[in-house]
Amino acid sequence: MKVLALDTSSNVATVAVMEDGKLLGENILNHKKTHSQKIMVMIEELLNDLELTVQDIDLFAAANGPGSFTGLRIGVATVKALAHSVNKPVAGVSTLAGLAYNLPYAEHIIVPIMDARRNQVYTASYIWDEDGFKELSTDEAMSIEECVKNCGELLDIIFVGDGVEAHREYIVSKLGERAHFAPSAVFMQRASSIAALALEKAKKGETMNYAELTPFYLRKSQAEREYDERHREELK
């Protein structure tokens, strides 16, 4: 089974094609958030390099959240359009699960953190054990203080994701030597991880029709929050 996967949930745009457990190719661009202009070009270039067409893909997958509202919409819409054009199934994969999957068989608990602004992060926790990759806690949006406090109940932790850049000093100040950080080579989103997780979903029969795939935002957009605040003020 060939899967084409993409992740546009952050500043990174990444596309990969995987056949069963073999990575055939992957493109990663971490330069400005111009996903609407770049993602289809990246897909076309990768398919051309692999001498494949959209018709050759058996499953389409997208990181469907959490993350940038605009980025998620672009990624999900792209996958839906491609799958619709050839009548193939799709799979939605947690962005946070994809980040954690970048660290295969890590010996510590993995806590991905994505910067959600206003001192907030998107986070969850995962572990590799003898049975493979497992989710310990589901995707949540919370303050970095709450995230680190929750980590106080865990053992040594590996942090990964763009939230580390903003909060590394605070994390170290609270957790000390128990805090570890992923190396830069696996620090960002990778479509190959989304592809691998999508294949696992396919094995379990957890794919869907293109029309069923939706972004998973976790919280309201900034525009919605500002509207709610104005509305509350008007009601006072």
Describe, in short, the structure shown.
The chain contains 7 helices and 10 strands.
Structure description:
With 236 residues, the protein is of the alpha/beta class. 37% of the residues lie in helices and 29% in strands. The chain has two domains: 134 residues, 2-Layer Sandwich (Nucleotidyltransferase, domain 5), CATH 3.30.420.40; 83 residues, Nucleotidyltransferase, domain 5, CATH 3.30.420. The strands form two sheets. A five-stranded mixed sheet has the order 3-2-1-4-5, with helices on both faces. The protein is globular. About 3% of the residues have low confidence.
Using the CA coordinates, give the radius of gyration.
Answer: 18 Å
Give start-end ranges of low-pLDDT stretches. Answer: 221-228
Instruction: Record the strand order, biggest sheet.
Output: 3-2-1-4-5
- How far apart, in Å, are the first and last alpha carbons? 58 Å
Q: Helices, strands, pairings?
A:
Layout: E1 2-7, E2 13-19, E3 22-29, H1 35-49, E4 59-65, H2 69-86, E5 90-94, H3 95-101, E6 109-115, E7 120-129, E8 132-143, H4 144-151, E9 157-160, H5 163-175, E10 179-181, H6 191-203, H7 222-235
Parallel strand pairs: 1-4, 4-5, 6-9, 9-10
Antiparallel strand pairs: 1-2, 2-3, 6-7, 7-8
